[in-house]
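User: Second chain of the day. Same drill as before.
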Amino acid sequence: MTHPADAFADPGVLQTILESNDYTRLVGLLESGTAEFKSEPYRLSEPRQKFELAKDVSAFANAEGGSILMGVKTRRHPTHPTDQVEDIRPFQLSLFDTATALNVLADRIYPSPKGVSIVPYWSSEDPEKGLVIIRIPNQDDSSRPFVVRKFVDSDTNKEDGAVLALYERRGAHVPPMSVGEAQMLMRDGMSLRAVLNRNSNPSQAQQLPDNGRSLTDRIDRLIHDTDLSEIAVFSIALEPGPQIDASSMFANAINPIVQVLAVPPTIRSGGFELTSGGHPEIFRGETRRVITSGYKGLEFWRDGTLVFAVRADEDGMSWQNLSPGEPYRLKAVPLIETILLFCMLAQALYIAVGTLPTSLKFLMQFQRLCREGHPPFLQGKYRTDKQYHQCEMSFSFDADSQTSPEHVAAQLIVKIYEAFGFEHDKIPLVERTDQGLVVSPVQILSVRP
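Assistant: Same format as last time:
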């Protein structure tokens, strides 16, 4: 078995390679949402390292499970936002005691994840050295979340048994769960208990509240999970009316909905796209998502809600080299192309689901668009730019689902350009037809990558 260059690792691939005893085949693999690499074993005599082990294992347990492989050196990949195996570094197996590690996990993770195993693989060159893999199976939802206790302060290296921590594997990263997310988990659990109690009482069965999250909540969570909470960001979300059932996307990886998310519509080669590749991962049994940390994220919910977020600073929709004090300048092409692609994707997803909603509720937001106190500019036709007067913008819009993506996108774009003070005939890539304003894919195709 061989793997292509820049292939993402997963537990199956790791097991096959390790059992072949040809560990050099690990070189070139990328970390992923289900595989993490460590150059050295955890030093379990140190409180901080015990905490790190519990943190890493709990993060996989709170996601979809995975593997931690120790004894491989990695480097930062030049284009992917993850690490890549560079070399194999077998270590003295006596440095990592399996029984001690399992005791640490049992003592520090609550509840204890089931089925965790630790397996050494010996080096053919030195029987005292080798690699060690920790395998964390996918856990039952009823056991989540897995909480890390005995938090260790990174500055003082002291334990605090009164502080709990929550972690969840997101792509190739293990960010701490925010206070808001932790509160949301507790709120959802309490809401579910209330619902179950009401369902057990027929007299209250018709008084169940709607526990769905708002579009703003879903946007905020995706922005946080994509590591965009501290930078300028553009987001667009769509809620169908009435809600639809897209839960079939959890059946398997070849489901039509998953295929659409994995390869969303594009307009031109080298143009702006809604994802940077990657498999749409299941998140908490609620969504499928593709996230490029620090850049953009796309998420489709089981109730048919679609959310997208992308950075809007000089490394995103305002791309250019900026001088000190110079404000962001939103570029027309990435903004308009992105909105059109989002509308095209929504149509393709609902076709894949097999249920077309009757109405569409859109919400677009710009956040943190001021640079050094200066509000942003937006690019118009004929090199005309106009400046907004605030750092934050929000636009809502209701559309008929029978309207074409080109028409819906044009109406969304008009709202943004009107807010900046543009007349309709000064909006790039939009043209007037007998049916009204539309975004012109032909004009977008003419734009050089």
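The chain has two domains: 11-177, 215-445.

User: Great, on to the next one.
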